[in-house]
Write a structure and sequence with these properties.
- The structure holds 2 protein chains of 2 kinds.
- In chain A, 57% of the residues lie in helices and 13% in strands.
- The N and C termini of chain A lie far apart (76 Å).
- Chain B has a domain of 51 residues.
- Chain B is elongated.
- Chain B starts with a helix and ends with a helix.
- The chains are: A alpha+beta, B mainly alpha.
Chain lengths: 439, 77
């Protein structure tokens, strides 16, 4: 009987492995560190991470509103759930910071916790990083070559001054929906430093012929093709009905592309590349991407935490708070003050990179494993990501809380504070009497 | 936050503080060197300062935690 179970599980695992590897494997993921821009409002770039954070905020606000709209003394359902969560957080925060301080810190710390937690878990939903609009990389490359002028930063004295890499997946078209084929490879084309737009165009022709038409030359020749090879490549493109089409000036008059590029090898002006009848070379710009897989968002949260901690510090101690950093009564204290000041700012950076690193790495891991080992290992990593999402939310909120407690305690007394559960309430009461008098 | 979440989160957080302190010191030192051309003076100073901040800041964060940890068994017993 036991053998049957084990055999069944083994068969299931193998079936999933086979299904994932040979049938349902996703396209090769393209890892992009900066958040992709979805649209612009005036000069502001609205990125997908920012957009996601708005959705999360709306979700939290609606949930809270729904839970507190008609409150009853004996909570049921949603109200019960929200009350349990808030009650739990209040208890934990008061446990660490004491009742009076805890209540004061609660709004910020609990908001950070809930926002980060919901963002992280929300970011694991399947439509993240997968569904979005497509950006046509093929056209982008041509537009870059066609509009190159000495005034542009990328071009000086007729040659490019820096490498510029374009990457995209080969995508199929079905009706109006563009999708990446399972196991589609990412292809990339680099405009090289020291190269003229015309030469880059020649290489682009070879690149297109290699990837979209029946044309093959050795890997070594791809980077530096001869005029003959480029002519053969152009012919291959022309003869294939499913390859992108090189347009000359007369064909483009109606379409209206920006400018033409003269190909040195072919001797003709190329006015555009049409992907109308072929597979596209495109990237997906996902509508949703985990809020904290963007350094800007974690930095924003880090700065908010930092500013709130400093405000609480000043509130509790007035200008005496600065004495912790600038104490010149003896050299050792002066040096310790410098360390204290530095660590205050390093906290912002460490807040920022900790959250970003964990969430971004998790996202990349899930994406890569979905490509390499679909169905099987990705599930385990998903579970791990749920845990990481929770722990990172807890870390961010907890450290904000602890730093806030440190900032509000009076200097010199800290030997006896921070985290002492039993003495906490009394110690805290003392601090606050002191603070009240100072004000 | 629960019996194990608080220490886990706390210790995970402090690890990153150590790392960022030292790396930031190194990066800023490198940058100062590239401006002044005094390589490797500021790189070394940066690393040392980063290390000092890491040890001092880390100790300041860890001490209350360790004290609390020392208290706990006696409370539970």
């Amino acid at each position: 009987m036991k053998l049957v179970y084990i055999g069944g599980i083994a068969v299931g695992v193998l079936a999933l492995l086979g299904l994932g590897l040979f049938i349902a494997q996703g396209p090769q993921p393209e890892i992009v560190v900066p958040a992709e821009v979805l649209f612009k409002i005036g000069p502001l770039n609205i990125t997908n991470t920012l957009f996601t954070s708005w959705v999360v905020m709306a979700l939290l606000i609606i949930l809270t509103f729904a839970a507190t709209r008609s409150m009853s003394l004996l909570p049921t359902g949603l109200q019960n759930f929200v009350e349990a969560v808030v009650g739990f957080l209040v208890a934990q925060i008061e446990d660490i910071a004491g009742e009076k301080n805890g209540r004061k810190f609660f709004t910020v710390v609990a908001t950070i916790f809930l926002f980060v937690l919901v963002s992280n878990w929300f970011g694991l939903l399947p439509f993240f990083n997968s569904i979005g609009k497509t950006a046509d990389v093929g056209h982008e490359i041509f537009a870059e070559l066609a509009s190159a002028s000495p005034a542009r930063l990328t071009l000086k004295d007729g040659v490019y001054t820096a490498d510029k890499k374009f990457a995209g997946a080969k995508m199929q078209k079905s009706g109006s929906i563009v999708y990446a084929k399972p196991r589609a490879k990412t292809v990339d084309f680099t405009v090289k430093a020291g190269e003229t737009p015309g030469r880059a165009m020649d290489r682009y022709i070879v690149f297109l012929a290699r990837n979209f038409a029946a044309f093959d030359i050795p890997e070594a020749a791809v980077e530096d093709p001869t005029a003959e090879e480029i002519r053969v490549a152009a012919d291959a493109l022309k003869n294939s009905s499913t390859a992108p089409e090189l347009l000359d000036a007369s064909q483009v008059a109606a379409g209206g592309e920006a400018a033409a590029i003269k190909s040195p090898a072919l001797g003709t002006e190329i006015a555009g590349v049409s992907f109308e009848n072929s597979a596209k070379m495109a990237v997906v710009i996902p509508f949703f991407r985990g809020t904290f897989s963007d350094l800007n968002n974690t930095l924003a949260l880090g700065i908010i935490a930092f500013v709130m901690i400093e405000i609480w510090g000043f509130q509790a101690q007035g200008f005496g708070y600065l004495k912790k950093f600038f104490d010149f009564s003896n050299p050792i204290k002066a040096f310790v003050g410098i360390l204290e000041l530095l660590s205050e700012f390093i906290r912002i950076v460490s807040f920022t990179f900790r959250l970003f690193g964990n969430i971004f790495a998790g996202e990349v891991l899930v994406l890569m494993l979905t490509f390499l080992m679909p169905f099987l290992f990705v599930d385990i990593i998903y579970g791990l990501e749920l845990f990481v999402g929770f722990i990172q939310a807890a870390v961010f909120a907890l450290l904000t809380l602890v730093f806030a407690s440190m900032a509000t305690e009076h200097h010199g007394e800290d030997e006896h504070h921070a985290g002492h559960q039993g003495e906490e309430a009394t110690a805290d009461a003392h601090h606050h009497q002191g603070a009240a008098q100072a004000h | 936050m629960g019996s194990w979440i608080t220490p886990t989160a706390y210790l995970l957080g402090i690890g990153w503080f150590f790392a960022t302190s030292i790396i930031l010191g190194l990066v800023l030192g490198k940058w100062a060197d590239s401006i002044t051309g005094l390589e490797p003076l500021f790189t070394l100073v940066g690393i040392m300062l980063g290390l000092a901040v890491a040890i001092y800041g880390g100790a300041r964060m860890l001490l209350p935690f360790m004290r609390r940890l020392g208290d706990e068994p006696s409370e539970k017993r």
